[in-house]
């Protein structure tokens, strides 16, 4: 390596160091305002740094703050109606991640589940986040950025209890019990590529809202209601911390 290249390499490393020290980790505070215990699940995207936890129990009224690496992308959801079985396995009626343990360990949420999706420190140094009902709904959820700069930094989520309001053909009932525990997406319920934005409908120009996605959009206007719902559903904020509330007030379940 000649002297010039060595110098520029050193300069680049120093520059990289500056960026690393400027981008501190984010804190995510998860709050359970539901009447019952929930079990948050966390899934990192491909090439995303690992998290301190991938799943835990959060009792009603409690909160837990975790440190999220600054370039993390992934999703967070809540599992409900979970049981530690006598045979040492663990499973949940909604949002189960298939790990058979408290920690999801790389498992994603079984639909239907309300998802909070994040890409931290993405394009322009901004965080991108949304709450998605594309994989259905299991409980109300709110994402509130704190202390960010740049970007709109709006709160997003779905505040309404959709389990009660869910169209009959999308409702998920708990085995042997009344009531509804989740609400499927039309894609999951009917497997139609038109609802799934797949096959011939896999672009924003060919996949349109359906009566079902419009139902979700009407009740939860800020949340993603189908795969190409980007314009009204993606939020940005610079270097923020986030509060993620399950069953935000005034709705309690
Ligand atoms: C453990 O018990 C649960 C509940 O009875 C059952 O659904 C599950 O299949 C069992 N798992 C194994 C590995 O035996």
Automatic annotation (TrEMBL):
Keyword Disulfide bond in the entry? The reply is yes
Q: Which SUPFAM superfamilies match?
A: Osmotin, thaumatin-like protein (SSF49870)
The cysteines covalently paired via disulfide bonds are 34-247, 82-92, 97-104, 153-237, 158-220, 166-183, 187-196, 197-207
* UniProt entry keywords in alphabetical sequence: Disulfide bond, Signal
The signal peptide, as residue positions, is 1-25
InterPro entries noted in UniProt: Osmotin/thaumatin-like_sf, Thaumatin
Q: What is this protein called?
A: Thaumatin-like protein
Please report a single Pfam family linked to this protein: Thaumatin
């Amino acid at each position: 390596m000649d002297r010039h290249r060595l110098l520029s390499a050193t300069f680049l490393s120093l520059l990289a160091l500056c960026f690393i020290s400027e981008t501190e980790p984010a804190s995510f505070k998860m709050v359970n305002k539901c009447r019952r215990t929930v079990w948050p699940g966390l899934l990192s995207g491909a090439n995303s740094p690992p998290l301190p936890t991938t799943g835990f129990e959060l009792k009603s009224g409690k909160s837990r703050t975790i440190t999220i690496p600054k370039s993390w992308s992934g999703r967070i959801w809540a599992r409900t109606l979970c049981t530690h079985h006598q045979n040492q396995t663990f499973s949940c009626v909604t949002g189960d991640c298939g790990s058979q343990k408290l920690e999801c360990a790389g498992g994603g949420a079984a639909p239907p589940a309300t998802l909070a999706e994040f890409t931290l420190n993405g394009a322009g140094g901004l965080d991108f986040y949304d709450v998605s009902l594309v994989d259905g709904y299991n409980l109300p959820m709110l994402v509130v950025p704190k202390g960010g700069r740049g970007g709109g930094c709006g709160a997003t989520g779905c505040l309404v209890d959709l389990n009660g309001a869910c169209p009959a053909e999308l409702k998920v009932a708990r085995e042997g019990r009344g009531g509804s525990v989740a609400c499927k997406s039309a894609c999951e319920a009917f497997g139609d590529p038109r609802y799934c934005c797949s096959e011939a409908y896999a672009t924003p120009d060919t996949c349109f809202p359906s009566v079902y996605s419009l139902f979700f959009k009407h009740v939860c206007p800020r949340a993603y209601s189908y795969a190409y719902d980007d314009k009204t559903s993606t939020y940005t904020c610079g270097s923020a911390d986030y509060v993620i509330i399950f069953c935000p007030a005034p709705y309690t379940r």
